[in-house]
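4.2 Preliminary Data

To establish feasibility before requesting continued support, the project team ran the inverse folding procedure on a target of 706 residues. The structure was first converted into the token representation described in Section 3, and no sequence information of any kind was made available to the design step. The complete token record follows.
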């Protein structure tokens, strides 16, 4: 209702219970002053080609049910297009088939014409402002054709100011917009549009973000493995070098000088370790001195304290005491560094006097004597042993480094496997979230049922997705990837094998598909390494492709077919005799999708001519009833030519549009309790009172004659 009047009360009494009258003993709670969490208040169109060119066009909306009516070409659908632009939902149209009617219509509208005869509903200076309430806060969304300026403003007690975030997304401003063409596209063969709607309503963005993050972490770990593999490439060659050096050293050891040689090697390793210990302490002393350089107090800014004042003099004294403490600490730290250096010098001196040092010197002397003996025995290069010993030491160090890298690689591989399982679990969680939403939303819906099949049963969609991952064009390797069934010949290829002869139980079928997916991943990975069972030509292609894309193997391991939907509709809308949607007429398909859209959600819903393709009984049983049931909990804006939707849906706000002076204008706005508004509705939607009464009298006489 608008302002309370006797006429409004009379109309409410005519509507009856559960429509415009609510009894105090009604078991269903009802708060007439409750508002939806999100609703659109107004939309202003300024300087569009056919609207708002001479003066701004402004439409105010009720938080509940709004109807836009008018003849053809009066701008009703344009208001929907303007809303889509203001809410930055152009991508929803771009996701449709490029030849689909709703997309081509929007593309013709969403452009600036270059000439008077060119298509386009915008101008260079077009500005759209959409005002909406979000959790009690008024927001202003601006869409200028130039794309410059502030996009989002918020209003508070002090007025309007730019929002801290200028982002306009469906998560921040949840509004659903559907034209009749979009509704029809939801049930097409690809099902991708409907799945996107389900994801948005089920809020799978969190689960998808987790999946993306898990996949990215897995890809990062696999990248580390590849980097470590590059570093480990010299491991085999190093093993050969070590064996060669060992064989050469064996000549010397077989001359019964092994004890001297081993003693020399052992003392050399001890000496290097002692040197490393001393060097470490020297580095510590240097680090302590560097730290001491940072210990200094900061001066108080000039003029901040007055030393003459007693109370401030005390504070300055405390600060001075702190400065002295810092200075003392700095001295102590420097003294510690000095002590460390002194300890190094003293202990080096002590080390030179130890029995161990004598043993080291003796091992060196014995080794030199051995070298001289070997020279006398005719060894061509007596110094070779020393070089070989040094080479063996270097190779041992390199081997230790590579062993450490190998151990690191093993740990990363193990971590990657754990992360891969997290990717699988994240993918399963997306399915579970979707299924939970469908179960809750359509539990008792008499018009439509939607089942969800994990990892899909649509071979064409799976084929497209797999080809994208492999980088294979659609005209190649059909028998390997997917070749549809022809006559008595079964479908062939990886996709066909994935879906063939699955158990009827969804849970068992899911387990089976997961097992087949893992086997498929392994086969493709082998093929990328040119050792698969697909044939030399396909293996060679994948080998070349994986060499160009190092992460191709990893993306294969994280590839999953998309879930598919099983949509069923009730022929009579009575919750019985559900049939596959593919057997439905255009009207039945539209009814099923409309039943789904109206069955869930609290966000504003904008529908552009939803009655197209629907039978009249479906318009009343489905659209009108659902609007009545939902409008107290969510805002609904409908563009329509059907009087049943406006009148029996009990629209709180009606905008009647017309075309005059080359512009689409709002001829009249108001509620149905206003007589002038009812007459306008009758004129626009029924052809006037006389035409309506004559049609009613003729229909009434025919009914009485039966």
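Position-by-position output of the design step:
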């Amino acid at each position: 209702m608008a302002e309370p009047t006797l006429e409004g009360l009379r109309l409410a009494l005519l509507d009856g219970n559960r429509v415009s009258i609510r009894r105090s003993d009604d078991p269903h709670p009802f708060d007439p002053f409750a508002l939806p969490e999100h609703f659109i208040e107004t939309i202003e169109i300024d300087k569009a080609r056919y609207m708002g060119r001479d003066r701004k066009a402004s439409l105010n909306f009720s938080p509940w049910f709004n109807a836009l009516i008018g003849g053809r070409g009066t701008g009703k659908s344009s208001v929907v297009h303007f809303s889509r632009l203001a809410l930055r939902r152009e991508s929803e149209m771009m996701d449709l088939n490029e030849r689909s009617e709703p997309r081509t219509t929007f593309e013709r509208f969403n452009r600036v014409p270059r000439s008077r005869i060119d298509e386009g509903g915008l101008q260079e200076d077009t500005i759209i402002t959409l005002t909406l309430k979000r959790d009690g806060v008024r927001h202003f969304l601006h869409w200028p054709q130039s794309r410059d300026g502030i996009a989002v403003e918020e209003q508070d007690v002090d007025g309007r100011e730019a929002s801290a975030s200028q982002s306009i997304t469906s998560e921040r401003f949840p509004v659903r917009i559907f034209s009749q063409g979009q509704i029809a596209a939801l049930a097409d063969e690809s099902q991708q549009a409907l799945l996107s709607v389900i994801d948005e309503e089920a809020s799978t963005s969190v689960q998808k973000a987790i999946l993306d993050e898990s996949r990215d972490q897995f890809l990062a770990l696999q990248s580390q493995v590849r980097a470590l593999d590059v570093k480990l490439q010299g491991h085999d060659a190093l093993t050969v070098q070590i064996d060669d050096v060992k064989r050469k050293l064996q000549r010397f050891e077989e001359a019964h000088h092994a004890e001297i040689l081993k003693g020399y090697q052992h003392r050399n390793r001890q000496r290097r370790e002692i040197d490393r210990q001393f060097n470490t302490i020297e580095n510590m002393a240097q680090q302590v001195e560097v730290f001491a350089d940072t210990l200094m107090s900061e001066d108080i800014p000039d003029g901040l304290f007055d030393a003459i004042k007693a109370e401030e003099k005390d504070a300055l004294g405390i600060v001075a005491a702190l400065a002295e403490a810092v200075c003392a600490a700095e001295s102590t730290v420097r003294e510690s560094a000095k002590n460390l250096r002194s300890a190094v010098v003293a202990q080096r001196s002590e080390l030179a006097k130890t029995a161990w040092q004598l043993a080291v010197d003796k091992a060196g002397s014995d080794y030199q004597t051995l070298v001289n003996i070997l020279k006398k025995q005719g060894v061509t290069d007596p110094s070779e042993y020393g070089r070989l010993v040094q080479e063996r030491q270097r190779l041992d160090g390199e081997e230790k480094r590579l062993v450490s890298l190998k151990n690191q690689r093993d740990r990363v591989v193990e971590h990657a496997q754990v992360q891969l399982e997290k990717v699988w679990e994240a993918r399963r969680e997306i399915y579970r979230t979707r299924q939970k939403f469908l179960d809750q939303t359509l539990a008792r819906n008499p018009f439509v049922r939607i089942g969800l099949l994990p990892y899909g049963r649509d071979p064409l969609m799976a084929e497209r997705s797999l080809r994208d991952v492999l980088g294979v064009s659609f005209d190649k390797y059909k028998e390997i990837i997917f070749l549809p069934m022809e006559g008595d010949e079964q479908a062939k290829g990886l996709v066909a094998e994935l879906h063939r002869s699955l158990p009827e139980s969804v849970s068992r079928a899911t387990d089976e598909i997961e097992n087949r997916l893992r086997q498929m991943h392994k086969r493709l990975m082998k093929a990328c390494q040119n050792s698969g069972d697909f044939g030399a030509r396909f293996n060679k292609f994948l080998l070349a492709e994986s060499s160009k894309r190092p992460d191709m193997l990893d993306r294969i391991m994280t590839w999953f077919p998309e879930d598919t939907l099983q949509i069923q509709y009730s022929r009579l809308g009575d919750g019985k005799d559900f049939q596959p949607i593919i057997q439905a007429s255009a009207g039945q398909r539209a009814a099923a999708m409309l039943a789904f859209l109206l069955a869930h959600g609290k966000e504003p819903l904008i529908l552009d001519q939803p009655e197209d393709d629907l039978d009249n009984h479906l318009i009343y049983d489905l659209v009108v009833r659902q609007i009545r049931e939902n409008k107290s909990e969510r805002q609904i804006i409908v563009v329509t030519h059907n009087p049943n939707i406006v009148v029996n849906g009990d629209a709180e706000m009606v905008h009647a549009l017309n075309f005059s002076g080359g512009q689409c204008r709002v001829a009249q706005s108001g509620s149905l309790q206003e007589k002038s508004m009812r007459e306008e509705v009758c004129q626009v939607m029924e052809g006037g009172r006389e035409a309506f009464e004559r049609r009613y009298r003729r229909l009434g006489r025919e009914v009485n004659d039966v």
